[in-house]
Write a structure and sequence with these properties.
10 helices; 0% strand; mainly alpha
Length: 186
């Protein structure tokens, strides 16, 4: 199947689903290549914005696809509106956005610091998962109270990463302030 722009989509001012998926997959592949990572890193060291390089890479992919790069970039800004009901495409789109952010962050931090950051994020996610598993044992109203306290904690800590975790003791203190039953479900 061809992924080149068809007049129907360009006159409709939007890329097709297949074109977007091709872009997302190609971008992920291209940005995983060592020479491309080096290109982005070198640009950052030359005081260029990493996102300018990733945008140029997207434009190059659009050219490969036979799509006017300005049109393609403009379409990326409309994906949320045009495809909001296409859950699968939206998942791919958000992965694409996250991939671009990660590529930029890796270039800005360097490989060692980036690896440390990813390890920290992995450990943080593990702690969050354990906290959520623990919370499921409580009544829904208790869970709501826990989430509200967590939200307050995050706001007061200016959304620092560590503020997104509560210990079992902190959760128990919140629940003890409630008069709702412990369900004991796992």
């Amino acid at each position: 199947m061809s992924v080149s722009a068809t007049p129907d989509f360009q006159s409709a001012a939007m890329l097709s689903r297949d074109q977007l998926l091709h872009l997302f997959n190609r971008f992920s592949f291209v940005t995983s290549q060592p020479d491309v990572k080096r290109r982005i890193s070198d640009a950052v060291q030359d005081n260029q914005e990493a996102v300018a390089v990733t945008t140029a890479i997207q434009e190059e992919i659009f050219l490969e696809m036979g799509v006017d790069p300005r049109f393609g970039i403009a379409c990326l800004g409309k994906v949320n509106m045009v495809y909001e009901n296409d859950r699968d495409l939206m998942i791919h789109f958000y992965r694409f956005v996250a991939r671009e952010e990660m590529v930029c962050e890796e270039a800005e931090l360097g490989p060692e610091e980036f690896a440390e950051r990813m390890q920290f994020q992995h450990e943080l996610h593990e702690q969050q998962l354990e906290m959520l598993k623990h919370m499921r044992k409580f009544h829904q109203d208790n869970q709501t109270a826990i989430f509200e306290k967590l939200r307050q904690q995050m706001v007061s800590a200016n959304f620092e990463s560590g503020a997104s975790i509560m210990s079992s003791e902190q959760i128990q203190e919140i629940v003890c302030g409630q008069v709702l039953p412990y369900t004991g479900q796992s």
